[in-house]
Amino acid sequence: MNNKIDSSLPTKWRRNLYFFLAGQFLSGITSMIVQYSIIWYLTKITGSATVLSFATLLGMIPMVVLSPFVGPVVDRRNKKFLLIITDIVVALFALILSITGTISPEFPLWLVFVSLFVRAVAQTFQMPIIQSILPTMVPEEELTKVNGQLGMVQSANYIIAPAMGAFLFSIIPMNWLILFDVLGAILGVGLLLFVTIPHVVSEGESIHILADSKFGLQKLIENKGLWYITLIGSVFMLIFMPAASLYPLMTMDYFKGTVGQAGLIEVIYATGMLAGGAVIGLFGKWKNRMLPILFSYLVIGVTIGLSGLLPGTQKGFMVFVALNAIAGFATPYFNTLLMAMIQQSYEPKYLGRVLGVINSLMSITGPVGLIFAGPIADNIGVEKMFMIAGIGTLVCGVVNVLIPQARNYDIELQKKIAERKRQENFSEESP
């Protein structure tokens, strides 16, 4: 990887990173509080499953459609500026929504949907930006651990935001609660101003959306091992997302549980993810990261599959809780380690374009699975959907093992990294 960055790594990179992570935590948790509150507001006012489904779809469409085209922008424009702009745009729409809700008896439904769509577009930009700047902010050997720490921040948001959001939703009028987005933007942008993000060589170059997106796809396809891993991951999302969307139904219909118990499952899964991310963040140095990824497929497959075999009783539900804690613990070993390998596979000047393609491929199969999830569950039973998801996940893991380019990908990647470092050291020592 030559000419990766046109400036040196920040001298106090660890402090720099913690400022960045703190900003992401504060802006993320306020954003999620507002997101949950909007969904609860729609549930309370409309009581319509169609409205809620449409709101969920609005949150998915930008990631699927825009991700390949976001990558070229991320590669060619100042990433710090892009992060600031996306936070400000979300805050402005939150302000408009808040003012409208203050002067009107209720929020216009169309404006709520527009706000949700804008938030989803902003998140579509923010994800590849964050993913592409981490390799420029930390030493390469720390990248896996740092991705684990970022995962911990995101998991903490998933644990804290629902409970805090529910409490605030019950005591603060919705038009004021929405202003938490403005607060999050102020805190996030304020901390980001103190963060140093090295410039990448490709910044400032002209953008050719279609050509750049095609280039990102070509770079991914040329990398056979990662291409196979991505395709298998997409199939995994196709199989897993239908079951993931049915957690409330599984809890309340099959186990005859309460809304509180449905929320408990969400918290338990996120807590498991936090614990898994913590292990990666503290000890995340593996010579072959494909092994923990395959471990993740195995654990998720077994736990989700077994969930479909449990009796529909409260005792069965308690086992369900334990299984989901284990599944949550295993989840970061898939997405966090895979992201670290992707980041090390490409130069920063190409990374945004490749990530755009990967994010799109990983995202598009989820909504496809969701289309069929409800009708299939209604016909065969929601618990059987969990069995299918578990078996499918195990098959994905087996396919990864059977394809040599996928199975040995990180071993070969580590060899390339070691060879590149050896050459760099030799060049530095040569007169």
TrEMBL record:
Coiled coil: none annotated. GO terms for molecular function: transmembrane transporter activity. The chain crosses the membrane at residues 17-42, 48-69, 81-103, 109-134, 155-176, 182-204, 225-247, 267-284, 291-310, 316-338, 350-373, 385-403. It comes from the Bacteria. Residues 16-408 form the Major facilitator superfamily (MFS) profile domain. Its main location: membrane. The keyword Phosphoprotein does not apply. Keywords: Cell membrane, Membrane, Transmembrane, Transmembrane helix, Transport. It is a multi-pass membrane protein. SUPFAM superfamilies: MFS general substrate transporter. It is found in: Cell membrane. One of its GO terms (cellular component) is plasma membrane. This is MFS transporter. It comes from Enterococcus avium. The lineage of its organism: Bacteria, Bacillati, Bacillota, Bacilli, Lactobacillales.
